[in-house]
Amino acid sequence: MNELKDFRNFLYMCWRHLNLPNPTPVQYDIADFLQNAPKRGVIEAFRGVGKSYITSAFVTWRLLHDPETKVLVVSASKIRADDFSTFTQRLIHEMPILQHLVPKDNQRQSKISFDVGPAKASHSPSVKSVGITGQLAGSRADLIVADDVEVPNNSMTQMMRDKLSESVKEFDAILKPEGMIIYLGTPQTEMSLYEQLPNRGYQVRIWPGRFPSEKLVHKYEDRLAPFILEKLEKDPSLVQQPTDPLRFDDEDLLERELSYGRSGFNMQYMLDTSLSDADRYPLKLSDLVVMSLDREKAPEKPIWSNDPSDKLNDVPNVGLPGDAFYKPQKLLGDWISYTGSVLSIDPSGRGKDETGYAVVKMLNGYLYVLECGGIQGGYRKENLEFLSVVAKRNKVNLVLIESNFGDGMFLELLKPVLRKIYSVTLEEVRSNIQKEKRIVDTLEPVCNQHRLIVNKSIIDHDYKSVKDYAAEKQAKYMLFHQFTRITKDRGALAHDDRLDALGMAVAYWVEQMAADADQQIRDRKSDLMDKELERFMAHVVGKGYQEKHLTWM
Question: 356, 286, 368: which is closest to 319 by C-alpha?
Fold first, then answer.
């Protein structure tokens, strides 16, 4: 039994029993991490490396050395957890060295939960499997294996991610003193549960499918498996070569990259979320032009820049990693008066959402965001007065109100308050397009053309305005957090009030600019037709036409 004190030796025996090729160096390294991992560990390894099988063997190895060990297996689905438990049972029943662990007749022995032979009577089975949405309370465990608890179906939206994050907190209540929690999985987004775990005291270890570039090594920070890093430091030419060629050679990885697509491959095989996030989240801070704005006038043409020298380092940044605010490279023309100004309002009602508002002015096809924020308290009088003051100090020409709330009630409540403070036209806006798609489709083209100019003061105000909210909720209410995290997926954000208000104001000006452009086209066509008619008549009637025509006129 001495040689079996090293889990890697036991893993070799398991693989031989299963008629599998000998464990690869990467698989052995994962096994070593499992044996020597801290109480809180996360294994992120490329898809297909066999991390679930390795960990299942680890469970049997733990039971071999201590039959009183209690193991809880949790997966995104009950079926997945049961599969892990079933494979563990198979090893116990088939391997000669584990025969004494086979459950006795009077012990539990289902795929949901089973005991091992030497285990004493207990309320908790030796191994129990459960889905993450199942009944976790009441269980007790020395080892919790969280095997792919995060999948696309439970992490697509912010609400889903929040629910998952809360569910796994139950692990600490289940775990016995000196117990161990090990996560196995692949992150699905930049906001993945696995990205949060280091802040909860977990040690993350990453095994990518290819040796990473220096840039990606830095992105991994201290999470890259030392086994991989040491090889790379000894031989830098290994970059982009397979880390586990016995498992997947270069040709195989190339085929998978073509199949998954670049972003999918980087997520599933390189454990790199950055590219996927860049593709997934269409709105970027770097596409904005940030400067201090005047309420009356603006430059005729601000020139966008993403040069490092124009990066703004003196404002809070809640965007995705690598994204940043930039000031304009230069300002062309004079500072002249805006051609129009609107205040958009997205009412909240009485819920936990905010009432979002945005002031957007237009000049020469550029949209200038003077103010944008959110207030809590629904339609109370103080909020109605606040919004009226916002309209007055910005001298807006029009107030737009989302009418989907209360069938126009907010407009009717605001109307008398606004009349006393600032007389201006109110207009309801109703949309039957999915909100997330509407916001992205409105803002993305304007941002891509760098025509959205943001008042620098908004950034500081946005950050400070949530200081009284619960710490874990502050970011979700920030405009620029919403801006950089929205997707076209329904329910992508837990809160989107500030962003929705901004999108509403921008949509108004986009429609106006489209209408103006159409009218300009019609006017130009009309002028061309008039000129063509003049030329035709002059040709047909003769040179005297123009004189006669002018005399007749």
Answer: 286
Q: Which helix (H) or strand (E) holds 44?
A: strand 40-45
**For residue 60, what are the contacts with CB-CB under 8 A and spacing of at least 6?**
10, 14, 88, 91, 92, 95, 98, 101
Kindly list the distances between the CA atom of residue 460 and the CA atoms of 175, 421, 467, in Å, as whole numbers in the listed order: 42, 27, 12
Residue whose C-alpha is closest to residue 184's, from 67, 48, 89: 48
Read off the tokens for 216. 């990606």
The vertex-405 CA angle with 404 and 410, nearest 5°, equals 120
Query: Could you report the per-residue pLDDT of 393-427, keeping only the tens digit for each?
Result: 999 999 999 986 555 788 999 999 999 999 999 99
CA 22 to CA 16: how far, in whole Å?
7
- Per-position DSSP letters for 483-523, written without gaps between them: HHH--SSTT--S--HHHHHHHHHHHHHHHHHHHHHHHHHHH
- Tally Cβ neighbours within 10 Å of residue 547: 10
How far apart are alpha carbons 46 and 385 in whole angstroms?
Answer: 56
Q: Where are the alpha helices (DSSP H) in 66-174?
A: 78-94, 158-168, 171-174
443 pairs with which residues across the strands?
Answer: none
User: Rounded to whole angstroms, how far apart are CA atoms 169 and 186?
Assistant: 19
Cα separations in angstroms, 280 against 24, 215, 443: 34, 21, 15
C-alpha distance from residue 29 to each of 34, 216, 301 (Å): 9, 21, 58
Q: Which residues of the chain have pLDDT under 50?
A: 517, 545-553
Strand (E) or helix (H) holding 361: strand 355-363
Whole-structure pTM over 0.70, yes or no?
no
